[in-house]
Amino acid sequence: MSPDLIPARGRSGGTAREDPNSAAEKDPLLAGLGRQVKLLRARRGMTRRMLAEEAEVSERHLANLESGVGNISVLVLQYVANALDCTLAELLGDETASSPEWLMIRKILQGRGQEDLQQAHRALANLFAGENPAGQRHGRIAFVGLRGAGKSTLGRMVAEQLGWPFIELRAEITRLAGVAPLEIQALYGSSAYRRYERQALEDTLNRHRNCVIATAGGLVGDPATYDLLLTNCVTIWLQAKPEEHRSRVIAQGEQTQTTDSPKAISDIRLILESRTAFYAKADFAYDTSGKTLEAAFTGLLDAIDKHQHAGVLE
Prior knowledge:
Elements: E1 6-7, H1 28-43, H2 48-55, H3 59-67, E2 70-71, H4 74-83, H5 88-91, H6 100-109, H7 114-128, E3 140-144, H8 151-162, E4 166-168, H9 169-177, H10 181-188, H11 190-207, E5 211-214, H12 223-232, E6 234-239, H13 242-251, H14 257-260, H15 264-279, E7 284-287, H16 293-306
Parallel strand pairs: 3-5, 3-6, 4-5, 6-7
Antiparallel strand pairs: 1-2
């Protein structure tokens, strides 16, 4: 099903050399498209092989697309968008062109600063989340961030300190699906995994007015699910240096394609880059880099208190 990518052409009309390191030969549009695909893939925690398999496009052609040296057909681009669970417009960097309402909303928000956009987001969230009583989210704490930041370890310790249940969202997904998250993705694809993730979060919120939740690093790949988390939980972004993310995951005996790759650190940096703006929506961030477990836990409790969440600890 996967038509070949057409080699990119330079301004002279000749065929450009397919050299990912030759920026001079790349068309700016194709280079931008390739970067967007790469960022969306990283945000969703998919390897290039996973995306190629789900889109039914050869890994070599996908590599050309991400490198900005292949002029992909519209049909193949649609396959890639489907596999990334996004629209073609989002893939091309403009998801707000689907209706007159979107265009008018975009016009209102266009050119406004981050503070104005945050205010608009809060207003819309309050408008469409009327079922959530005011202050309810302060009965729950959720940790977000990459694997190896300490979400499970510190989350469990915070839960014990508070006397609240600790919920590992990946375990809830396994309970609902009957198989582990990696098997869900292998058998049914990443879209099915995201549906189970959403259901696991909804079930957790329905069952617990007070709890501590450790999320999977890629939860921010589904903005609707992430918004549900932000609306219903005090959310903390646990940070660490890329080198520490990798060493901690390896120390836990959980090597992945990312941690085993010769480009492991650059891959982790790319994933962080693709998710940073989303993680930054958390109520506050706490950096665990260079800290012992005891120091990280003590500092985290101090940070919660400092950010006026002391009432949560009572």
